[in-house]
């Protein structure tokens, strides 16, 4: 009798403990309206960081002249370049309508740019670096004082000041695997003609310039696939194939190899002598059917000019090179 009573009490206690354990989870699973809770949507970061948007640079056909420039600095007796936190002297004063609190982008035009990679003839525009941002802190007669808010590179005497663009970073996309065998879209194609700081081997988050612009109907936020045509690389050399095919080897009774190297291509005519003509890669490539192109990465456009656009690398399969092809997705 006592055993049955104890067993019943134990069951009641176990059920009570189980309900207490489940209740908090049931409460958490409801939102403010008493409805079953939903997992918050994944926050997708912008496609580019603020530094890439502000410091990308551009190639423009219509460079804007500026009457404002950096003419000196607080420590000019000891330095010729300035960075974040330094005070610089700028041309412009009360007479030009300068006001405390105004901010300016610092630009450095570098000259007309042409590219051997582009199918577009003539100049693509004036390559202009974006090197920083300053804020006016003191307005004087003749000149004024500005604080360097951020620097993409060293600021130099003679750098020009322009009104900031204030262009937001393009929207990002959910992470996914880049398809290395993606088929062509048939949309606009171009080339990477230059990279910031004149880099030639490029990786994630680096800024590049392409020869597609407003005249090609591209716009900020467009994503493009970076690819190379079939079997085209930085270095292509098939001389070693000929060497291997012509080598006699060390055929002997001492197990030192022989004429049939596992690295040699097959004979063009199967009944030929071992020294006969072989099939080589260039010949195979010349007569083969179409094969997938080599997809090496993805970029997104930050800024569009007439003949060019500034973009940032968002995904890579391997390193990207100046001269690689791009296609609008």
Principal-axes shape call: elongated
- Helix content, binned percent: 10-25%
- What percent strand? 25-35%
How many strands, which pairing sense, and closed or not: the largest β-sheet?
7 strands, antiparallel
Descriptive overview:
The structure is a single chain. By secondary structure, the protein is of the alpha+beta class. About 8% of the residues have low confidence.
A few lines on this structure:
By secondary structure, the chain is α+β, with helices and mostly antiparallel strands.
Looking at this protein, list some descriptive labels.
4 helices, alpha+beta, 329 residues, 7-stranded antiparallel β-sheet
What's the SSE blueprint?
Elements: H1 2-28, H2 50-55, E1 58-60, E2 70-73, E3 81-82, E4 87-91, E5 103-113, E6 125-139, E7 143-151, E8 155-156, E9 160-162, E10 189-195, E11 201-202, E12 207-210, E13 223-228, H3 239-246, H4 281-287, E14 294-304, E15 309-316, E16 320-321, E17 325-328
